[in-house]
């Protein structure tokens, strides 16, 4: 009698963890008569979604042990922000996959050590002591042989935050009110005014006029005309006086033209004195500025600064960061307070910096905030696992589901703060400092030096002339 086969099943055995028993899942079933009656076409990761309560080890970075008390209550959101957000994501994945998480605490993400080993959280993953990295990691090529990325849940970014300094600290504000073409036009007007007055007055002060005049008159020279025009520019009077109608008409229109220019210049320079300089946008701009700089005192920040390869970044670190006795690496609280006092750029996670600014700055102090590119350019940090982990695909799909269902958006809004809004731009007032008018003082100093120099040459010339006259008298005798 032949054996009859009622049903054929195709099964796939697997284990959720090495120490557990085999689990079999049915992929397809069929009978000789009906053929294929069931086929499980779901993805492998979806079919094995339930990991049946296994324990997976995870290492995550905590820089402040007090954060362990506030992983889920949104207290001190500016401390260990990315680790707290990642911890919330992993807790949701724990529920989704029916697993338990055993956490291991590290104080650093990890840097390369001797013998191709790593410290910190990356070292735990390299030694396969843990399965998951519980704190997001910036992309770095040297780590790709050790870890694999499976999700991006913390949309943070790094940048220098600063308050835009007054425009007078980077530019000569006395040349800014007018465009270059206007300055050329003003110079042309000045030259034309000097020429017309000189021509008109020279015709006026003829020898015949000087002889017939009842009052003693001194002929006006070119230097008098120049001083006359400078006085008109400054809306001041002059000792020179014209007599003929033509000269007076020229003088009238010169004063009118200079008056309109003077009003325009004065109004513009008042606005410029209260303007801020937005030109600091790149690392090069920051390097060439007079601003002091600092950075968040976290391990990865110090690592990127000290391990810079290109010449410019090495120079930036040496000049701007390592030139002083006091360390330029500081806590976000100290860095933000220095931003508040002005003339200081602080590199940190932008949402963390804005969180502290929102809490500590007055409304008028929030005006003028700007960002400059960071010392190191990195993208969004990602959650990682050890290399060739069997759970990588499962966790990758799990994090995508969390993103689709709004977890990332919800927790981003919970933990991160956008750039504080300036309530009133007019409330930010700059007091006029010495730096704002140092160009005027320089003009005065150079003018005095020039005057003294010319006076010295006049004395020498006068002595030379006297000496020449004495020689002539002796030769005559």
UniProtKB/TrEMBL annotation:
Bilayer disposition of the protein: Multi-pass membrane protein
Cellular compartment(s): Cell membrane
**Protein name (record):** Ionotropic glutamate receptor-invertebrate, putative
Which intervals hold domain Ionotropic glutamate receptor C-terminal?
Answer: 181-445
The gene name reads: 8238274
Q: Which GO terms describe its cellular component?
A: plasma membrane
- Which family is this sequence assigned to? Belongs to the glutamate-gated ion channel (TC 1.A.10.1) family.
Which keywords does UniProt give here?
Answer: Cell membrane, Glycoprotein, Membrane, Receptor, Transmembrane, Transmembrane helix
GO MF, any single term? ligand-gated monoatomic ion channel activity
Q: Which domain of life is it from?
A: Eukaryota
Identify the Gene3D superfamilies for this entry: 1.10.287.70, Periplasmic binding protein-like II (3.40.190.10)
Q: Which GO terms describe its biological process?
A: detection of stimulus involved in sensory perception
Q: Does the keyword Cell membrane apply?
A: yes
Q: Does the keyword Phosphoprotein apply?
A: no
Q: Which SUPFAM superfamilies match?
A: Periplasmic binding protein-like II
Fetch the InterPro entries from UniProt: Insect_Ionotropic_Sensory_Rcpt (IPR052192), Iontro_rcpt_C (IPR001320)
Q: Where are the transmembrane segments?
A: 149-168, 180-199, 252-273, 440-461
